[in-house]
Design brief:
The chain has 240 residues and is an alpha+beta fold. Helices cover 15% and strands 45% of the residues. The strands form three sheets. It has a seven-stranded mixed sheet with strand order 1-16-15-13-10-9-8, sandwiched between helices.
């Protein structure tokens, strides 16, 4: 396996003009053309949606798409510029590749990786990944994209998330019949630490600490985002 878990397609550089209606971003390309790109991110993008900053977009020639360009990343931090992943569809793709290649730690000798498996009360929820093997208990893995920071500490969430709270409760309910893992996908390479975003959602922070106390495992996975691709850097230090 190469260093790149996910290689980016051809990217086109530019600068962010504005993001609006959540899913649209006006961008001035280096070519001088101004485009409207799809913003594949439903969150507030706290601290990373900065007009005037450098961005990279990909392009699709599919005739079924209304917007051919997709906003992929933005550069932040004037002192030590860092690319931050914007496309929240990518973390699950990257984690699937990482699980298949068995590069993530602490998961044991598993053989199968399944995605979007029904679980929870009345099976009305879906876990991002279910990892199984003949000699290990089933491992349920929920993935959360993480881009908000306080200095070198990555934080999640960056807003109140009732859905995220629900996921923590459902993961906790899996203990002890199965292993439950909350995987934070730190979508930037400049954060060696991770902590819950208490100032944005204090209830989430309390639930996370309680879930850990009851056996939920946390994998704060660091990823470097570059113009070539996404590389796994290892685990961040958990700062509770």
């Amino acid at each position: 396996m190469t260093d790149w878990i996910y290689p980016y397609p051809t990217l086109y550089p530019g600068r962010l003009i504005k993001r609006y209606k959540r899913f649209f971003a006006d961008i001035e390309l280096d070519s001088g053309e101004t485009i409207t790109a799809h913003c594949p991110n439903t969150g507030p993008m706290t601290g990373v949606c900065i007009p005037g900053n450098r961005v990279q977009v990909s392009r699709s020639d599919s005739k079924t798409r209304k917007l051919p360009y997709t906003w992929e990343m933005i550069e932040v931090n004037d002192v030590s510029p860092t690319w931050v992943g914007v496309n929240t569809a990518l973390p699950n793709q990257v984690i699937k590749a990482a699980l298949t290649a068995k590069v993530l730690p602490n998961l044991g000798n598993y053989q199968q990786v399944q995605g979007e498996v029904p679980y929870g009360k009345d099976k009305k929820s879906r876990i991002d990944f279910l990892v199984t093997g003949e000699e290990i208990p089933p491992i349920y893995i929920e993935v959360k994209n993480t881009t908000w920071t306080d200095g070198a500490i990555a934080l999640f969430p960056d807003t109140v998330t009732t859905r995220g709270q629900k996921h923590l409760r459902e993961l906790t309910d899996l203990i002890p019949q199965a292993r439950a893992v909350m995987l934070y996908f730190i979508n930037r390479g400049d954060c060696p630490q991770f902590a819950p975003g208490d100032s944005a959602d204090p209830e989430y922070g309390q639930l996370l600490r309680g879930a850990i106390a009851q056996g939920v495992e946390v994998l704060p996975c660091r990823f470097e985002v570059t113009l070539t691709g996404v590389r796994y850097l290892g685990l961040a230090e958990l700062n509770l």
